[in-house]
Amino acid sequence: MGEPQQSRRSVEHLPMAVPPPRIEAEVMDGRWYKTSDKPQWIERLELDTVDDVTYVHIFGGASPSPADWGRVRIQWPYASASNTSSAKAGGFVAQYDFDEMSVEVQANYNLGLLVVATFVTFKQPGALSDRFTREFFFRA
Amino acid sequence: MTAAAETAALALDAAVLAGEWINTNAEAGIARIVCTSHPDGTMRVRCSGRTAGGEIEDWSEVDAPLYSFTFESRQAGAFSAVFDLGYEEVRMQANVKAGVLVVASFNRFKDDSGRSNYFDREFFHRISKG
Fold first, then answer.
1. Which class would CATH give A20-139?
2. What CATH code is carried by the domain that includes residue B21?
3. Residue among B66, B90, B118, B120 with most chain A CBs within 10 A, to mutate
4. Residue ranges per domain, chain A?
5. Is the pLDDT of residue B87 over 50?
6. Residue B16 sits in which domain range?
7. How far apart are CA B81 and CA B91, in angstroms?
8. Could you tell me which of A35, A27, A24 has the C-alpha nearest to residue A116?
């Protein structure tokens, strides 16, 4: 006795998964430099996309920012518009984990600028407070 | 000093964040944010979202870690929060600037609706202090 078969109609009425449009994260690729002349948390960053996977490499500025944060895969790209069918990248989220702190990077791309926010969370309470940063970068 | 008291003593002051915030745009995706600070130094945030049909949706209340604008400050100026709505995850980035709560949201759909993840930015003014 074979497997029970669903009727064609029941198959037709199964909810079909619709893949979201591919977000063009590569529009953010490149080398990004800080707009401010003053020292800041992030000195510069690089974005590159390989086989539809986007990576960010951050270079630190003012202490206690590490000089080289390393290159990590971004968690997800986000579209720039809320009409839910947009395919143009508008931002990304990435996570860094250091010995003393974890950092969530939340960036958005707008009008040629990359606006990079970070939430810096220390693993042990100490003299320094957990900190929010928001800095601006232009593409070379 | 107990561990709890020590933690509270090291906590950031959430005075500029605590209270009820209303979106400056009456048609935006997030209608209202309520930030409640607690004696132990933690803060929780409740959001009311607006559906595409205009109905108000309670996103429930979540823990919201606090952040200052400098490493030396004990004054919180920002928070993060993550809301899991089942069909969607909303990562919220909020900071106060000139009395305005600037909220960036990173919206990721977890259903199979075919909708794109998207970034949004909205502004709120405070109607009552916590």
1. mainly beta
2. 2.40.128.120
3. B118
4. 20-139
5. yes
6. 3-129
7. 6
8. A35
